[in-house]
């Protein structure tokens, strides 16, 4: 029978997957924004994500809140270890938000070029840092027997983490390109679909490389996973989702391709969760020192009270998200107002 600790573990990964699916395409579109040919295309990019980006980031805040409430020891340990990385991530997120709001406030080409560049590069940095953080977690952090953790910032930029950062960027660029192809028409749609195909190749290639690297860097992640039914469900989901994306692209089914990309992201996060469970943060010193869903969790009373709040809050977030996307669905149409 699944206990509250396991439930919160699954919920945390559901929230992270939701963030990557929703805010992930924002990040991907922003990276492609760097390659826009003219002002009209740049406005289309911004209008495609402008009405929804801030709502998408709610999922990241919710995931952080869930981590703090359910696994405070993990929250404290991870945030202290990744302090500089998270500060860079925070500044990147701030620049991304400011760029969206500031770039059209002054009618000057140089002003807009600066904020367009800030929008694209800050989003690229965010996409890479998300993968770097996950790569270090999967690799394991030097957690001592007393739970203390000391690690230099440069040590976080190890080859395995950088590989995961590149994988994350490729995945989100693919996801964003598919979203943009579904929201645009004509020549821009065809060029965006071409970008999506290239990003798909990069994603699959880097994913295969990451799997091989993980087998050598973190062999403990493969222990016992074959006996877990969820592992096979996520494997089949990943293969089906990723395998059908090129088919849908060729057929012009961009909305379906985007949904398949969402399935690929969800399956990827599912595989990570299954591989880590019951660990939250493995220790590279000794796996016995790892933070788990039990030794890093809040009290049962806290988990229970927070779970009741989640039962009310998550449906509200889902309803809000569905409502907003229903309003802004369809092709992007430029008007006198807007970005």
Can you describe this structure?
This protein is an all-alpha fold and 339 residues long. Helix 9 runs antiparallel to helix 12. It starts with a helix and ends in an 11-residue tail after the last helix. The mean pLDDT is 89.
Briefly characterize the structure.
75% of the residues lie in helices and 1% in strands.
State mean pLDDT (0 to 100 scale): 89
How many structural domains are formed by the residues? Answer: 1
Structural class: mainly alpha
Output the helix-strand order.
Answer: HHHHHHHHHHHHEEH
Q: What key phrases describe this protein's structure?
A:
339 residues, mainly alpha, two-stranded antiparallel sheet
Q: Which SSEs are present, and which pair or pack?
A:
Layout: H1 4-33, H2 39-49, H3 53-56, H4 58-70, H5 72-81, H6 83-102, H7 109-139, H8 153-156, H9 159-183, H10 186-217, H11 229-251, H12 254-276, E1 279-281, E2 291-292, H13 300-328
Antiparallel strand pairs: 1-2
């Amino acid at each position: 029978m699944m206990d509250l600790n396991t439930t919160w573990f699954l919920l945390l990964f559901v929230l992270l997957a939701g963030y990557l699916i929703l805010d992930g395409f924002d990040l991907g579109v922003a990276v492609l924004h760097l390659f826009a040919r003219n002002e009209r295309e740049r406005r289309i990019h911004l209008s495609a994500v402008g009405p929804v980006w801030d709502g998408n980031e709610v999922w990241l805040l919710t995931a952080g809140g869930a981590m703090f409430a359910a696994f405070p020891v993990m929250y404290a340990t991870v945030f202290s270890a990744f302090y500089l990385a998270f500060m860079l991530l925070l500044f990147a997120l701030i620049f991304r938000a400011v760029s969206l709001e500031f770039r059209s406030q002054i009618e000057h080409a140089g002003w807009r070029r600066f904020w367009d560049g800030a929008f694209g590069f800050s989003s690229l940095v965010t996409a890479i840092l998300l993968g770097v953080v996950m790569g270090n977690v999967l690799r394991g952090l030097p957690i001592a027997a007393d739970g203390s953790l000391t690690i230099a910032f440069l040590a976080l930029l190890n080859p395995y983490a950088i590989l995961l950062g590149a994988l994350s960027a490729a995945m989100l660029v693919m996801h964003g390109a598919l979203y943009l192809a579904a929201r645009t028409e004509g020549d821009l749609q065809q060029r965006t679909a071409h970008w999506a195909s290239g990003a798909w190749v990069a994603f699959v290639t880097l994913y295969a490389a990451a799997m091989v690297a993980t087998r050598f860097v973190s062999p403990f992640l493969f222990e016992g996973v074959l006996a877990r039914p969820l592992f096979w469900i996520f494997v089949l989901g990943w293969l089906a989702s990723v395998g059908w994306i090129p088919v849908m692209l060729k057929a012009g089914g961009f909305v379906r391709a985007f949904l398949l990309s969402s399935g690929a992201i969800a399956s990827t996060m599912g595989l990570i969760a299954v591989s880590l469970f019951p660990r939250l943060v493995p220790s590279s010193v000794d796996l016995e020192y790892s933070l788990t869903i039990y030794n890093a969790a809040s009290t049962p009373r806290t988990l229970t009270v927070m779970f009741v709040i989640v039962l009310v809050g998550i449906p509200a977030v889902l309803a809000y998200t569905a409502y907003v996307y229903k309003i802004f669905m369809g092709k992007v149409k430029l008007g006198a107002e807007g970005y």
